[in-house]
Design goal:
This protein folds into two domains: 185 residues, 3-Layer(aba) Sandwich (Rossmann fold); 71 residues, no CATH class. It is 29% helix and 22% strand. It has eleven helices and twelve strands. Helix 4 packs across helix 5 and helix 4 packs parallel to helix 6. The longest helix is centred in the middle third of the chain and has 18 residues. Bound molecules: adenosine-5'-triphosphate. InterPro entries: AAA+_ATPase, ABC_transp_ATP-bind, ABC_transporter-like_ATP-bd, ABC_transporter-like_CS, Oligopep_ABC_C, P-loop_NTPase. GO terms for molecular function: ATP binding. Keywords: ATP-binding, Cell membrane, Membrane, Nucleotide-binding, Transport. This is ABC transporter ATP-binding protein.
Length: 335
């Protein structure tokens, strides 16, 4: 069995420059020297490697950088620093020697299929356009190909002539999945793919993802702000806070062995954990702005266990047990 990861992000970062505000535009108009515009470090020195067949759940509060990391994984965002490998081959790096490239083998499924499905296109074109354009299927076989995909995601092939508005939310989610599958990907980034759906429909779509993984040997990065959702489908859970990974743990060990105070705070919010969650301490306050992250460990202002060192030094993401990584100074305090 190959030990090369399917996808590897090595020490990647993403900086966004904030668009110039009114004051900066006035300074510019007055011919005054520009002040450095504050930016956002959406992803800060993150390494992530995903094996073929693995389902990795990526969780954290809104704005912590999950979508940005997912977009970097599939090549929708360039890298400000670091490198990206696909089956061991360098696909993108921050230097000009490593040009930014993507591949049909990796696709992204978004939260709102309504917004990402062209309302004026029929299902046959929505799903069948890309595989024809990329030579995966001949145009004369397009309808047959799309019908097979519709059946695969649990839709009636007879809907091939329909428009997106004729479908329910759950059916549109299935269309979005069929469209991603149409180019025969090996790796899917699912970004809040079930967040807009009712709970009962969510469960159906999650089960569809799992069935497709087994049938098509797919690998997933499953992004959600809802730990309960990702826990259901993932082998491994990666927790992000303000651009950094704070913990990576096997999903089956999450409830028993979660180490980072932030992960434990997220667990305190999971409704199905009653009464076990009583041992977790709920999170305090709001996540600070990514434009002005706290010094040291970004989580320290909200952490019930913060120590002086947490304010000054960022803890490294260290392996605290086989396959279990956590970035917390508490792990390095001698008893
Ligand atoms: N294209 C962009 N330009 C400028 N800033 C951006 C851009 N995309 C994301 N950001 C900023 O980067 C930070 C991380 O955003 P991101 O969308 O990755 O977080 P998230 O965890 O996926 O949150 P959400 O679940 O709300 O999408 C946020 O502060 C966001 O405002």
């Amino acid at each position: 069995m190959s030990t090369t990861p399917l996808l590897e992000l090595r020490r990647v970062s993403k900086h966004f420059r904030k668009p110039p505000g009114l004051l900066a535009r006035l300074r510019n108009a007055a011919g005054l020297p520009a002040r450095q515009a504050p930016g956002v470090v959406a992803v800060d020195d993150v390494s992530l490697s995903i094996r073929a067949g693995e389902v990795v759940g990526l969780v954290g509060e809104s704005g912590c950088g999950k979508s940005t990391l997912g977009r970097m994984a599939v090549g929708l965002h360039s890298l400000s620093a670091g490198e990206r490998f696909w089956k061991g081959e360098l696909l993108a790096g921050a230097s000009r020697l490593a040009p930014h490239r993507t591949s049909l083998g990796m696709q992204m499924i978004f939260q709102d299929p309504q917004a990402s499905l062209n309302p004026r296109m029929r299902v046959q074109d929505i799903i069948g356009e890309a595989p024809v354009a990329h030579g995966i299927v001949e145009r004369r076989r397009q309808a047959e190909y799309v019908e097979t995909l519709l059946e695969r995601v649990g839709l009636d092939p007879a809907v091939i002539r329909h428009f997106p508005y004729q479908f329910s939310g759950g059916q549109r989610a299935r269309l979005g999945i069929a469209r991603a599958l149409a180019v025969e990907p090996e790796f899917l980034v699912c970004d809040e793919a079930v967040a807009a759906l009712d709970v009962s429909i969510q469960a159906q779509i999650l089960n569809l993802f799992l069935r497709l993984r087994d049938e098509l040997n797919l690998t997933y990065l499953f992004i959600s702000h809802d730990l309960h959702v990702v826990h259901h489908v993932s082998h491994r859970i990666v927790v992000m806070y303000l651009g950094r990974v704070v913990e990576s743990i096997a999903a089956e060990r999450l409830f028993s062995d979660a180490n980072h105070p932030y992960t434990r705070a997220l667990l305190a919010e999971v409704p199905s954990l009653e009464p076990a969650k009583k041992r977790f301490i709920a999170i305090r306050g709001e996540m600070p702005s990514p434009m002005a992250p706290p010094s040291g460990c970004h989580f320290h202002p909200r952490c019930p266990h913060a120590m002086p060192v947490c304010r000054s030094e960022a803890p490294p993401l260290a392996e605290i047990a086989p396959g279990h990584h956590s970035a917390c100074h508490l792990n390095h305090v001698s008893a």
